[in-house]
Amino acid sequence: MRHNTPVTLAQLPNPPAAPPAGHANLYPTTDGTLYRGMPDGTADPVAVRRTVRLDAHHLVAPGTPATVSGLTMDLQPGLHEVRALLRTSAYDAGRVLSRWALTGPAASLVHATTHITYTGGEAHHYGISGYGPLTDDTRFWVSQTSVSLTRVDAVVDVTEPGTLGLVPTVERNRWAFDMTDGPSGWSNDGADTSYTEDLVHSGPAATLLTAWGDGNSNAAMYTNGTFSGGPYQASAWLYSPAGWTDAGFIVYWYAGNDYLGSEQSISSIPAGAWKQYTITSTSPPGANWAEMYVGMWQEPPQGTELVVDDVVLEQTTGQLQVSAGSLVTVSRL
Predict the structure, then answer these.
(1) Is residue 161 within 8 Å of residue 75, measured between CB atoms?
(2) How many CB atoms are located within 10 Å of the residue 127 CB?
(3) What pTM, to 2 d.p., does this model score?
(4) I need a surface site. Which of 7, 70, 267, 325 has the fewest CB within 10 A?
């Protein structure tokens, strides 16, 4: 049986001598580009495909974005076809939000199309088109899931030598109800909700609860897409002009229609001062949504007021895992 052995060309730091008439030299340079040398001493790049691939999983934590080591490639001026295939998943959390940027020489222009498939087979197509600088604020795609497969097809026009890279920005799940738009999205129970600009903890406005006087007085906000069994922190800033014995909030966790449990941060609030209420805990396994009640308990008198601002429910762990085998391929056109 005959076994064919592939031919491997040594990379050359300098072009070889010009070939004799009627012949041509094929040689790769140290940047991986294949050139064809002619008898007159000229050399032209030949269409060649180069691939870089992750050999091990790469973890990305929230913070300053940085290029994924192992998914970069040096480019010379000219047109390049770029294809990237990324398999990502949440690490230490059920879900994380990732924004990916294709970056390179600042003067480069790009046209890119992105396809993302999430766990469960729900496909989303993102088209990113138009010429512009190849920077992280103009070319990115987003995935918020436990596992996703992303394919990117792009054509890059490079005008100066530089490095092509993939830069992820990672965020943990966070629901921030800062009350800038007042009580929009909140459901009230035992209190009227209104918009106030007179008393705010931060931003232009807050929500004002005014007790009906016939029971507990609170408002609720619903969330979805939460993580399963993940550490979280919930907090709210409250202000009471007259003070009250039992103010704060309760977080209720659910799996579909099944109630899983709750945790609360309720205590007295002094008159005329802002007070922060906080819970640091772990959501029950299987939880996929929550509701958060903020307000006053123990039947405050009619007209008792409570100002609510900067309400946050956020995940406290979670990184993005870029799986081994993720790759970038570049072909010189």
Answers:
(1) yes
(2) 11
(3) 0.69
(4) 7
